[in-house]
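Work Package 4 report. The design task specified in the project plan requires that, given a folded chain encoded as C-alpha cells, an amino acid be chosen for each position. We show below one input record used in the internal validation round.
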C-alpha cells in the first residue's frame, strides 16, 4: 500500500467516525434518545466499521496510524469546552469511562494478533459490538436485580442478555467460519458466552471495551479444534480459580468484585502465558496485596487499578513482541519481577533497613530461575543480568520515597519496573 493511499484511508476512517457521531447526535435529538443509547449507537457503528479493517488495510503502518489518530481525536473530544457539542454523544453519561479509547486499543491489538484467522478477529469484535450493547440497553431499561461494582451497579438482566447474544453469535460464527467439530462448537460457544459475561460484569470505567474482545480472542486461540474433554477441564479450572479467590477474599481484604476480577485475570494469564510465565504476574499481585495491608494506598480502587496495570503490561509485551518479531518473554518476566520487588520494598518500608537488601537478591534469584527456562535466554537481547540489576536497584525507590507511592501506586510502580526492560527492548530489539 502506497503512503498516499494509506493516509487517505486513515483520513477517511476518521471522517466516517466523526460522521457517525454527528448522525447519532442528530437522530438522538430528534428521537430524544438517552445518553446511554447514544453512546451505544456510536459504539455499534464503530464496531461494525472495525470489521472492515482487515479488508481495507493490507499493511500494518496505516492501522497503527489510524489507532493513534483515533485516540488523539477521542482525547480532544474530552476537552471541557467541546463537551457541549459533538462530544456529548460520548460523554453525557454520568459515570467515568474511557471506553472509546480502550475500544481503539482493542481493535488495533486484535488486528495484529488475528492475521490469517478471521474468526479470532470477527467474533471478539462482534461480541463487544452487539453483546455489550444488548447488555447495556437491557440493563438500563429492564434491570431490576442489581449487584455492586466499582462506583456503581450492574444488573443480572444485563449479564443474561450479554450471555444469550454472545452464545448465539459464537454458535453461528464458529459453524460458518471454522471446521470445528459440532460438539466443540457447542462447548466452546458456552464457554465464550459465560466467560465473556463474567468479564463484562466485572469490568469498570469502560475497560469492558478492552477486556471483553481480548478475553474472547485468547479463549479461542488454540481451541478451535480442541476435544470437548479439554474444554470441560478448562471450564472446571476456571470455576475452581474463581471460587478459591472469592473464599480467600476476606483474608486478603478484597471486595467480592475485586476478587472475581483477580480470578479472571489470573486464569487468563495462566491460559495465555502458561504456568511458568504466569509466576511473575502472580507474584506481583500477591506482593501488592501484602503492601496494601501494611501501607494502604490512598487511591479509590487500588486493587482494580492493579488489575488494569497488570493486564495492560501483559498486552504491551505481547503486542510489541509480535509486531517487531521478538520473543519478549524474558522482558515480560523481568517487568513483573521488578513490580513485585517494588511492592515488597514498600511493604518492608516500616521495618528494619537490614531487610531491604534481601528484596533485590530474592527477586534476582526468582527472575533468573524463571527466565532460564526460555530457549532464547541470552539470545537476541544479550545478557539479561545487567538489566535485571538496574531494574532491581530501581525497585528500592519505595524505601527512599514511600510517600510517592501512596497515590497512583500501581502506575508509578509499573513505570519504574518497566523502565529497564523497555530500554533494553528499544536498544536491542528495535534500534539494533
Amino acid at each position: 500500500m502506497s503512503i498516499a493511499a494509506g493516509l487517505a484511508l486513515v483520513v477517511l476512517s476518521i471522517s466516517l467516525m466523526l460522521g457517525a457521531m454527528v448522525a447519532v447526535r442528530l437522530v438522538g435529538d430528534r428521537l430524544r434518545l438517552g445518553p446511554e443509547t447514544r453512546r451505544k449507537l456510536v459504539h455499534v457503528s464503530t464496531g461494525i466499521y472495525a470489521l472492515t479493517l482487515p479488508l481495507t488495510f493490507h499493511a500494518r503502518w496505516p492501522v497503527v496510524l489510524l489507532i493513534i489518530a483515533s485516540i488523539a481525536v477521542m482525547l480532544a473530544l474530552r476537552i471541557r469546552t467541546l463537551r457541549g457539542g459533538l462530544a456529548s454523544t460520548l460523554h453525557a453519561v454520568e459515570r467515568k469511562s474511557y471506553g472509546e479509547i480502550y475500544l481503539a486499543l482493542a481493535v488495533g491489538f486484535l488486528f495484529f494478533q488475528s492475521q490469517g484467522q478471521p474468526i479470532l478477529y470477527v467474533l471478539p469484535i462482534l461480541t463487544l459490538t452487539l453483546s455489550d450493547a444488548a447488555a447495556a440497553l437491557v440493563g438500563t431499561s429492564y434491570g431490576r436485580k442489581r449487584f455492586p461494582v466499582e462506583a456503581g451497579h450492574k444488573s443480572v438482566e444485563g449479564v443474561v442478555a450479554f450471555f444469550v447474544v454472545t452464545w448465539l453469535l459464537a454458535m453461528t460464527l464458529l459453524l460458518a467460519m471454522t471446521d470445528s467439530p459440532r460438539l466443540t462448537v457447542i462447548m466452546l460457544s458456552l464457554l465464550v458466552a459465560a466467560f465473556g459475561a463474567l468479564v463484562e460484569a466485572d469490568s469498570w470505567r469502560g475497560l469492558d471495551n478492552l477486556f471483553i474482545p481480548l478475553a474472547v480472542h485468547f479463549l479461542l486461540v488454540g481451541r478451535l479444534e480442541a476435544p470437548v474433554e479439554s474444554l470441560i477441564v478448562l471450564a472446571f479450572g476456571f470455576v475452581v480459580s474463581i471460587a478459591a479467590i472469592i473464599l480467600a477474599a476476606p483474608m486478603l481484604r478484597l471486595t467480592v468484585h475485586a476478587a472475581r476480577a483477580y480470578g479472571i485475570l489470573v486464569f487468563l494469564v495462566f491460559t495465555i502465558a502458561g504456568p511458568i510465565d504466569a509466576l511473575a504476574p502472580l507474584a506481583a499481585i500477591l506482593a501488592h496485596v501484602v503492601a496494601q495491608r501494611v501501607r494502604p494506598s490512598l487511591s479509590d480502587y487500588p486493587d482494580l487499578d492493579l488489575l488494569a496495570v497488570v493486564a495492560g503490561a501483559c498486552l504491551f509485551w505481547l503486542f510489541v513482541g509480535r509486531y517487531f518479531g521478538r520473543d519478549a518473554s524474558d522482558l515480560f518476566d523481568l517487568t513483573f519481577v521488578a513490580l513485585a520487588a517494588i511492592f515488597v520494598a514498600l511493604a518492608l518500608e516500616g521495618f528494619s533497613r537490614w531487610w531491604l537488601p534481601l528484596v533485590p537478591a530474592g527477586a534476582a534469584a526468582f527472575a533468573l530461575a524463571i527466565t532460564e527456562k526460555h530457549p532464547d535466554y541470552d539470545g537476541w537481547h544479550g545478557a539479561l543480568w545487567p538489566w535485571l540489576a538496574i531494574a532491581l536497584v530501581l525497585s528500592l525507590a519505595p524505601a527512599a520515597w514511600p510517600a510517592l507511592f501512596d497515590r497512583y501506586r500501581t502506575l508509578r510502580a509499573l513505570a519504574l519496573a518497566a523502565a529497564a526492560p523497555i530500554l533494553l527492548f528499544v536498544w536491542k530489539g528495535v534500534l539494533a
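The mean pLDDT is 81. Validation will be extended to a larger panel in the next phase.
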